[in-house]
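Cont'd.
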Amino acid sequence: MPVRDLQRVVILGATGSVGASALDVISRHTDRYSVFALTANREAARLARLCLRYFPRYAVMADKAAAETLRHLLQGKACQTQVLDGVQALCEVVREPDVHTVIAAIVGAAGLEPTLAAVCAGKKVLLANKEALVMAGQLFMDAVASANACLLPVDSEHNAVFQSLPGDYRRAATSAGVRRIVLTASGGPFRNTPLEELETVSPEDACAHPVWSMGRKISVDSASMMNKGLEMIEAHWLFGVPANQIEIVIHPQSIIHSMVDYIDGSVIAHLANPDMRISLAHALAWPERIASGVSALDFFGIAALSFERPDFARFPCLGLACQALETGGSAPATLNAANEEAVKAFLDRRLGFRRIGEVIDATLAQAAQYGAASIEAVLEADARARELARIEIKKRSAA
Ligand code: NAD
Ligand code: MG
């Protein structure tokens, strides 16, 4: 049997929901993958447990105090893991020459710098952190091209589109007769909730997703459908399609993960159980296939697949994301930052659910929009939008 080179993997955001799915897949294929570095923000105890299980060369905590706790927890233990801290260390580990693959699974804008560092170092990058691409799409895709990085989507919809497009996906959308990219959405927990009840829904209600089990921020984004708005911008950059060629379809069963509609009338769809290990296994092994640990699809158990139009009045975040994509420049970074601040305030019970869209709308209306040609410009737009959003949140504060 030929001996395969072990691919050394960094998981940015290893303590999260996507991080856990990635480690589950990797642990099924120790002949192919080894864990080079694991990173987290503050969850030192959880990262310590992962270090003692996967023996990474490095563990990085974004938070310095948490890194101290982690050092303490690993002291005298049977692992040689070196503990580093801070954003710079996150960027440095992904650039290490021994690193083959980086799984970008940090939530939010915090993922931008390390994910971009991995792209600029020409690594194979598995992208879950959609916010990075939303904030800095042009910069990101330019860096992919100039560093010849291999960027593979693991967001389930984009992975589904990738699997439904032929060959090189970045050329495919323009040259392969694609009419539309159809992103499916479950509709989240509030698809049928009476509008007046949406006034008082709690973070627990919003995080109780009917199909997926995910981190809290993306769960709220799914409930407001901002997640689909961010995914539309993500699809625009990944596949080079304009907004008017991206359609959103509500598909409550979440079995079709997305589709590509071709000009001859053919539609190619990707079907799978809703489990992130599928797209992670696909992208890890691409262009080969490996087992993900997910059971085969039971067609007789599913029985029916249904589709609905998205309700832009119920979910104003969808329209705001379309608007930001059309405006371009720094508008998507502004949208993303205002959303992150509003979601945080909602999770902290400082803001009502229906006020999330209002805060984003008011922030987009006030923020000066300009080109997003450098990382500094993107970070500046992000910081400015957060300031404006915090003022808008205070005005509507539930407290
Ligand atoms: P999560 O909240 O479960 O985990 C987030 C991870 O990021 C944790 O490891 C945390 O320590 C780390 N992190 C948070 N803030 C950080 C900071 N400031 N600096 C460094 N690290 C930080 O989130 P998740 O659900 O795993 O989602 C991660 C990303 O993947 C998000 O961008 C999300 O939109 C995307 N995504 C998630 C799913 C899913 O099923 N969970 C599906 C598709 C895409
Ligand atoms: Mg998704």
